[in-house]
Design goal:
mainly alpha; about 350 residues; about 75% helix; disordered C terminus; globular
């Protein structure tokens, strides 16, 4: 939960001039390297099926599903980071991951009745409330930016207002699309796992093929984002080489932190018997990364600094609604939704 909620801070640390499109090349590389290192160390120890054996035994279709899941998730994650660059972590994460959680929970409830209906729909309602107030927080911050940009005389600058409001709305829409894609990658992961059968892909093999899909698709998706950016001016591929060593290392570190968090979540639900925990608790905590990101955005990065008190109230309400929803999932009677890759799936 801590890793999945904090990895985007490395993007913030890289500075406002280092665009998410450039950061993401290093992120994807770091994630793949981390998954390979873990697969050939922890994934090859003990009495359980090793990473190499799992790859040999797993069905080709299941491996293809793992690769496809990484591609779909990657587009969602890139849009999430685009949202962070527009509206900040405290708004982007709860909207994107929250919407993914709503869709995933409801689908699993309708298909398998895996969770008590009251808890399932109650938690979905709380997450929806968190998304709404997060969007209101973004709007409040944008309005404050307009006020700061207006002349001292108090005259209204309509051009600035239009641009700022449009930027906040664009950020919210980008995060909503990201959340839908997050949920869309969940079935692919479930098909890759194949219900834990012999042909299914284990935790370490899943992450390797998942991150291969991430790195491969980054090279394709970034051609679009660089030439037709979600936010800001168009870039050139050569701009990546203009980054400093620290900026590149931060991107790699971000990928490593994210990958470590994903693997930690996976081994608690599809690992050996010694690592298994309650699916409900694992599902809730893995999605709790959004709570961590809100706290970091509010307390460390001060994303609402200078905004009205209303924006801060909305931010705190987002935190409370989301934490309440996750608590309902964790405490729901009966089995939890089939837990898969964290945080968004």
């Amino acid at each position: 939960m801590l890793l999945l909620g904090s990895w985007a801070s490395t993007f913030k640390m890289a500075g406002p001039k280092w665009r998410f499109e450039l950061y993401y090349f290093d992120f994807a590389f770091g994630a793949l390297v981390a998954s390979l290192l873990v697969a050939f160390t922890f994934g090859s120890m003990g009495d359980e099926l090793s990473f190499s054996d799992n790859v040999l035994i797993a069905g080709k279709r299941q491996l293809a599903f793992a690769l496809a899941a990484g591609i779909v998730f990657n587009l969602a994650n890139m849009l999430l980071l685009a949202g962070v660059s527009i509206v900040g972590m405290a708004v982007a994460f709860p909207i994107s991951l929250g919407l993914g959680l709503i869709i995933d929970t409801i689908i699993k409830q309708l298909m398998s009745k895996a969770v008590n209906a009251t808890f399932a729909y109650g938690s979905a309602g709380l997450v929806l409330a968190a998304i709404v107030v997060a969007a209101l927080a973004a709007s409040a911050v944008a309005k404050k930016a307009v006020t700061a940009a207006s002349p001292v005389t108090g005259a209204r600058n309509t051009n600035v207002k239009s641009a700022s409001s449009g930027g906040a709305m664009k950020g919210v829409i980008v995060c909503i699309v990201s959340g839908i894609l997050m949920a869309g990658s969940s079935p692919l992961v479930s098909m890759a796992q194949d219900g834990g059968s012999e042909l299914g892909v284990g935790a370490y093999a899943l992450m390797v093929f998942f991150t291969v899909g991430i790195l491969f698709s980054t090279m394709i998706f970034n051609l679009y984002f660089i030439n037709l950016p979600v936010h800001g001016q168009a870039l050139e591929l050569g701009d990546y080489l203009k980054g400093g060593l620290g900026q590149h290392l931060l991107g790699i570190l971000g990928g490593i932190l994210w990958c470590a968090g994903m693997i930690a979540g996976l081994v608690t639900v599809v690992g050996s018997a010694a690592t298994l925990v309650s699916p409900a608790i694992s599902y809730a905590l893995s999605h709790g990364g959004a709570v961590v990101s809100i706290l970091l955005g509010l307390l460390i990065w001060r994303e609402f600094k200078g905004a009205s008190g209303k924006a801060t109230v909305f931010g705190l309400l987002t935190l409370l609604f989301l934490a309440g929803a996750l608590a309902m999932i964790a405490l729901a009677p009966g089995a939890a939704p089939a837990a898969v890759v964290a945080p968004a799936l």
